[in-house]
Amino acid sequence: MQKLAVLLRVLSEPNRLKTLRLLADGPKCVCELKKDLRIPQNLVSHHLRVLKDAKLVQCCPCGKEHHYSNNREELAKLKTSLLAMLPN
Asked: Strand locations in the chain, DSSP E?
């Protein structure tokens, strides 16, 4: 339950939820996320770092850019944990 509580705190920030939703469409670089989120690059990077530390996103270096994608395995575990709390 402790890990779930930490993840829910991470997800309580609207821009992080938006980021996960944007990454559901496929990998994106920081510049693409900046444009879609309409927030400064330093804030995009901060939110990505928090999501990465929580293992909810992955980073893949691609030349000078880094492409971020959802960590589907960890998000599936989160989904399972949340669904387990609902009545049958």
From this structure: 28-29, 57-62, 65-70
**CATH number corresponding to 2-83:** 1.10.10.10
pTM: 0.92
63 Ramachandran zone, left/alpha/beta (phi>0; psi -120 to 50)? left
pLDDT in tens, 55-88: 999 999 888 889 999 999 999 999 999 999 988 7
Instruction: Give the residue extent of every domain in the chain.
Output: 2-83
